[in-house]
């Protein structure tokens, strides 16, 4: 079990992590979801003993990362946001290096990385600096796993990686979870939230919700509308000025709209848009996804 109790960390006047308390069970695939600057990296760096909290305690499988940092570093496989690889070393040399640092050998834990490593093994003599984003990511994951960690800590592992490699990466994480490794991952991509057992929605150093993704979505009870308009910016401004508007935001190529009244129909919204001389395709009630929930939870929160 991993437990954060009232964790605070500031950098001068920035509250990077602001009173975070939560518990992650052993064997979970747990995600921290939040935009840049939410505090995810700072939280991860305290968990793996690279930063000391200003206040609060962390319990990592019974260890205190401040007092027992040497033991903590042995049981964590950390993949930082910026790639951790040595670019002048080849694939094979990078892996060898990480195995040696942790006092193990590639052979000893090869079974753990086999599925991932065999995809890059044909290029094992190539320097890490000459690999594609997806290949670097697979190598970094292999390096983080080579000492058979109890916790795999992955800080934005899919940022800057193409869509196919992102999907493959999450499939690899599911397989590692089946092997009993606890996985804590951060991501700014809301669509990846649905692939975690539970997620924490984080912004401005605070956790706004912790639950399985399906539960977060099911708690969203307000009617939500999608509006396809010709001019998103003009329509956004007009809707924001409408007295009944609870919230409106761009969502892909459409707008998502919430009304202060509970029983408003799409026709009423269409009538308002027409009265403002705005051209639209249609207004439809839709089911929210995790991104809508994130926006709703953090709406009006400083
Ligand atoms: N060493 C530091 N010195 C000063 N400010 C910092 C430092 N590290 C982080 N911060 C600030 O703390 C806040 C949280 O940053 P953090 O890196 O933890 O967020 P994040 O969610 O990981 O986002 P990102 O993807 O941008 O790293 C940001 O405002 C950041 O500028």
UniProtKB/TrEMBL annotation:
Keywords: ATP-binding, Nodulation, Nucleotide-binding, Transport. InterPro entries: AAA+_ATPase, ABC_transporter-like_ATP-bd, ABC_transporter-like_CS, ABC_transporter_ATP-binding, P-loop_NTPase. CDD domains: ABC_DR_subfamily_A (cd03230). Signal peptide: none annotated. One of its GO terms (molecular function) is ATP binding. Residues 2-229 form the ABC transporter domain. PROSITE patterns: ABC_TRANSPORTER_1, ABC_TRANSPORTER_2. It comes from the Bacteria. Pfam families: ABC_tran (PF00005). Belongs to the ABC transporter superfamily. This is ABC transporter ATP-binding protein. It comes from Carboxylicivirga linearis.
């Amino acid at each position: 079990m991993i437990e954060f109790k009232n964790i605070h960390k500031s950098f001068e006047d920035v509250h990077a992590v602001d009173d975070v308390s939560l518990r992650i069970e052993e064997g979970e695939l747990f995600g921290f979801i939040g935009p840049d600057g939410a505090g995810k990296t700072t939280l991860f760096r305290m968990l793996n003993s690279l930063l000391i909290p200003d206040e609060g305690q962390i319990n990592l499988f019974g260890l205190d990362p401040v007092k027992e940092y040497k033991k903590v570093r042995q049981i964590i496989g950390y993949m930082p946001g910026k790639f951790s690889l040595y670019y002048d070393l080849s694939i094979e040399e990078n892996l060898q290096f990480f195995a040696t640092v942790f006092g193990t050998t590639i052979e000893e834990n090869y079974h753990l990385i086999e599925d991932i490593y065999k995809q890059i093994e044909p290029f094992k003599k190539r320097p890490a600096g000459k690999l594609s984003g997806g290949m670097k990511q697979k190598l970094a994951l292999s390096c983080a796993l080579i000492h058979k960690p109890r916790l795999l800590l992955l800080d934005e592992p899919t940022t800057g990686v193409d869509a196919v490699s992102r999907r493959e990466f999450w499939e690899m994480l599911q397989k590692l979870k089946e092997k009993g490794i606890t996985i804590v991952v951060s991501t700014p991509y809301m669509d990846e939230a649905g692939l975690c057992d539970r997620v924490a929605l984080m912004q401005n150093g605070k956790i706004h919700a912790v639950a399985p993704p399906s539960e977060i979505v099911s708690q969203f009870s307000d009617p939500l509308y999608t509006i396809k308009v010709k001019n998103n910016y003009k329509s956004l401004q007009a809707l924001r000025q409408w007295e009944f508007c609870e919230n409106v935001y761009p969502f892909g190529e459409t707008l998502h709209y919430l009304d202060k009244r509970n029983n408003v129909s799409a026709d009423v919204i269409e009538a308002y848009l027409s009265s403002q001389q705005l051209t639209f395709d249609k207004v439809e009630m839709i089911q929210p996804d995790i991104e809508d929930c994130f926006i709703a939870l953090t709406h009006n929160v400083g």
